[in-house]
Amino acid sequence: MRWLDAGVILPLLAGVVFLALWEKQFYHSIFDLKKYQLPLPSAIAQSMRENFSLLLSYTGYTLTEAVLGMLVGSAIGFLIALTATAWPRWGGGSLTMVAALNAVPIVALAPIMNLWFGDGIGSRVAIVTATTMAAMAINAYKGMAAIDPLALDLMHSYAAGKPAVFRYLRIQNSLPYVFTALKINATASMIGAIVGEFFFSSRGLGYLLSNSIKVAKMPLGWSCIVLAAVAGVLFYLVVERLEKIFIKWHPSARS
């Protein structure tokens, strides 16, 4: 009951107070904002009701881009980590290259990916792939490298070969790091997909948000922001649930 009070009731109460102050235009008066600049929650809710089918369809489209891109980017990042661990001399430089790619702004990647993959869903998937590789590669490599020397000696005492060491020790030890990267990528993928839609897209929340701002339909634009946030949180919770299923042996999962 104490956890319920602290973890659920207090955040809900804070959220209700925040929305009530927003509806009463408290923030408008503090920051000197007009209602067309910051629509009221009631106006946003009305816009969501009026455009529910469109918003739901575009949310699904953006979420598809995010999920596909994250899966591809995370898979490539994991393979890079495997290569860097198995062959440090040849694979170590790939981590540096991935980190350098991650430093490139999304707004710079978007035109390049559109030129390479066209203006369809492939370009946004490629953007998300590029933005999610680094977190997985670096975290997975850290997990594979940070193994207990005693465990490694035990594997060697049983005459375990390199594939067995990777399968039963290094990859197993990397799983908590892998799920940490997946949780990072769950939110980063939504950002990448939406920003990519700002530039080249005919569907999705980013496309609808950009058009809504251009024609001053701010309640509709804020509806896109709300749904993007909800989709990102749900995506994160799904990954968190999978983490508890696949690494029940880890102390963090037991706690």
Automatic annotation (TrEMBL):
GO terms for biological process: transmembrane transport. It comes from the Bacteria. The chain crosses the membrane at residues 6-22, 67-87, 99-117, 123-141, 177-200, 220-239. It is found in: Cell membrane. It is a multi-pass membrane protein. The keyword Thylakoid does not apply. GO terms for cellular component: plasma membrane. Residues 59-243 form the ABC transmembrane type-1 domain. Keywords: Cell membrane, Membrane, Transmembrane, Transmembrane helix, Transport. Signal peptide: none annotated. Belongs to the binding-protein-dependent transport system permease family. This is ABC transporter permease. It comes from Paenibacillus wynnii.
